[in-house]
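so my prof wants the structure for this chain in the tokens format not the other one, which i didnt know existed until like an hour ago. anyway here's the sequence
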Amino acid sequence: MATKTYTEQQNIKYKKKLNELLDILPDFCTEYFDSLEFNKQPRTKVAYAMDIKGFFEFLIETKPEYNKYKIKNFTPQDLDKLDGTDITKYLRYVKLYKKNGRDVTNSESAAKRKLCSLRRFYAYYYRYEIIKSNPTLKVDMPKIHEKAIIRMDPNEVAEFLDNVESGNKLTKTQLNSHEKLKTRDLALLTLMLGTGIRVSECVGLDINDVDFDNDRIKVIRKGGSESFVYFGDEVREALLDYMEERKNITPEDGHENALFISAKNKRLCVRSVEMLVKKYAQTVTTVKHITPHKLRSTYGTNLYQESQDIYLVADVLGHKDVNTTRRHYAEIVDENKRSARNIVKLRKD
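here's what i got, hopefully its the right format
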């Protein structure tokens, strides 16, 4: 039997998780999630299910009439009893609440996502006249305050990669594993900085996704579509060095095709890459909070500054809507506008 790809394995994991959540949620919810079968990815459906489960938990926790309810007890008629005030209280609640004795907080963007999940949920039952009203529409979306894009400067990128290669500024404990893993780490981080791929796309790469004849990799984008991303000479060199080393690694069963292998001979996971980036970023800067996504922002910034082509940046980064790219790089666009203010001369000197 052929080994399943990373994407296939992830989809199976999330389908199982969704089934577990549907066993907890009221029976009428199954119809809603069945309607999402062909237009939402398994991971997205799990996120929706978690948000809806959290909403029912809020009702049990805060509304006396539901204190003795189990989540399974809720019906569409219970949804119809709620109004806009209840939804507003829910948004206030998710900012800070206790769960299993611990404080749980949500950012503005997380609260917005939760309201989006709830709006979709209510809209389905309202559309089919199972409920008579949709109070989620009476509540404004949380306003998201834009944050400055954090990215690495060119000198920081150079020092970052130098430290990956040399182990400079690592602790004694970190140096114990550095020699064994530095070729892999350098290939992985050079690839991310040189292509702007997402961390999930990176860990999902298989050996046969790397095409050295055309200097490109095949990635599975958000939403499940395939795309080719091209890499330059620096990335090619780092990947070739690692591929030689990769030939001598014997992965665990089920991980034979994975490109990037952990010290335990399994496919590297997202969390491991996050920790890897954090480890090396701390050797360069303690002021900036550098994550895998910040490596992506760094690449996007560099590509836009060199090409001045926002559509190219959107395509390479895998943004479905170029306006998403514009929002992320608006600051750079404004800088270019300012720098170009004297290019056109109205009168010759």
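also thought this was worth mentioning. The first strand starts at residue 96 and ends at 99.
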